[in-house]
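Example complex used in Figure S2.
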Amino acid sequence: MMKKDIYVLSAKQISMQQPLCEDWMTQPVEYQTPFNRSIDPSFKDYISPIEARRMGKILKRAIATSKEAIKASGLDSVDAIITGTGYGCIENTEFFLDALSKDGEQMLSPTYFMQSTHNTISSLVAIQTKNHGYNVTYAHKGISFDSALQDAVLQMRLGKINSALIGGHDELTETFYRILKKGGMMGQDDEMCGEAAVSVVLGTNNDDYLCKLVNFKMLHKPTLEKLKAVAKDFQADYILTGISGNHKSDKAYFAETKELFGDAKLLKYKHIFGESFTSSGIGVYVAAQCLKAGKIPAHLFVNPSEISDKKPSKILIFNHSDGNNYSLTLLEA
Amino acid sequence: MTNPILITGCGVVSAIGNNKAETLDALLNNRSGVGPLVHLKTEHKEFPVGEVKMSDDEMRKRLNISDNNITTRTALMGMIALDEALKEAKITPEMIPNIGFISGTTVGGMDMSEQYYLDYVNNENHKEYIAVHDCGSCSEMTAEHFGKFAFITTLSTACSSAANAIILGANMIRCGEADIVVVGGSECITKFHLNGFNSLMILDTQWCRPFDATRAGLNLGEGAAYLVLETEESAKRRGVKAQAILSGYGNACDAFHQTASSPDGEGAFRAMKEALELADIQPDKIDYINAHGTGTPNNDASESTAVKRLFGENVPPMSSTKQFTGHTTSASGSIEAVFCILALQNGFVPVNLNWSQPMEDGIVPVHQSVKKELKHVLCNAFGFGGNDSSLLISKPEL
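Predicted assembly (731 residues):
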């Protein structure tokens, strides 16, 4: 299959860092608490107050990041809208489950249900941007955003699309944070959890871009041998890991990166953005912004001794989700 | 399309059968599986449903899974369908690490979460089910019963989830990412979406009547189906034959409303048109359309308009099979794709049961048994939010 040049044209985020900007590069917001919700921008520039009243937070954030990313991409519209969300519209799911469990089955309102399915996000973005193109949603824990990215890359290689809006959206309520922690799904050890809303526009041709997307691969429970074979095509000077404070996962990141990438410098981002099912999307955003800026903020280096002002040329986003699912995303300046 | 994508095996479970043979028999003999609720514990006994005729315990027994294992109904149904698909395609355990698995679901493990939600919130009981609530865990549970697939992901586009899983699998094969990808979807009925659909007032208290003037909503169903997609070269090398060819597919967004279809059926029209264009097949070559045809006033009107826009006066024989199975939601795309494969292989058009009065400006569905050779069929699956997909499945050239 012919490898087409694919570019990251734009990337926008709403998270526990300052929204829709790159203030985290110089002045990251610091947290001491294990669970933090996002810092929301004013949504009135993106959605009318009447519409906004009926929408959950995840939807408002998706619309804001999507509209900002499309605007920054320089494109009038995108050929595809592809969203990844690990747990979907948790807030409305929680409302509906709560009512179902406490009040029974006779008095349920349709509003929560209508906005509880995972694909509500992608379809709402399509309605808001009047887009009839390819539209799907992936819901697979920590590789939801990665799956969306893969779909776009495949279709660009096939020549089916030339641009795509890739979204990674997960919200987290206090209740679900406690439930997921209890179930061992997140918030283990020293891990800080949060929410993620990230929109990335990919395109096959443009003069102005953040970086190139050179290669991408997803694997399920690979043997070390298989990982090694794949990693040959993903060598970079910096590896952006998902080191998060989860002891078991962090240990695996150190061992695997040493084995696969030798002395490449390790970076992290979850210590300021938190853990979320779609935080790998934040990883792509962070790496793309660093490549565009031509520098890596000192606070992203895992080893303080490696901090340097050197302009990065290639950053690999290396994501292993719950030790089962791996994704490798190679970006180049 | 350049290289054909072969379907070298498939498996299905729904209200009309626990395998392909039972399913074919029911389709040929117009035997519906829709009836009163048996397995789901709900106050809403007034709604007929298309339940799979096995309890979770019966499925676990059939799959040799111990009662102590954490399972969800969606995953259990998925395993039964996947088992049949893998066996048909002669896929051995050693091959699994080189094969991709793509599944579609929306409710995932909600059948357990809705029983234990207050425990999750308030105490430590049943906390082992928390990790199987989400869609991705459900796909992994299904897949891991058979081995370690090379890669797994999950589509969740409501009622078109399985159809979109098929589309992703096809794109992966065309890109050379894999020789074999197993694709489809699974979904059990839950209180969560039965009540959700009820709150939207789209459930019929009677047997559903797609494309009928008196249609008043859908009956929920459940089930699973998986298809083995394979390159021609790989099938030849392995000595397996194509049951059918996936010759085209399309995905478009209606971009109209969160839970309603547009009056002009724009999303459906675009999805079907794209499927035809990809296959380079003219509309007059389509021998049958398996409609999404849910039986809601809105869907059937919108789908009729879309079909008429694309086919003009010459609408091919068309039917909905949701009177047989109920609306199997996320799994419907792959379950009905299997029905289309059975129709192609056995030369018949499934009957649009329970139809008597034509709807205004609607299509007139096939309402009597028709035996005829089919070459190309379209299979529609549309989801909430206007996630519309269409698959074009063809008979292999002999």
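The mean pLDDT of chain B is 97. The first strand of chain B starts at residue 5 and ends at 14.
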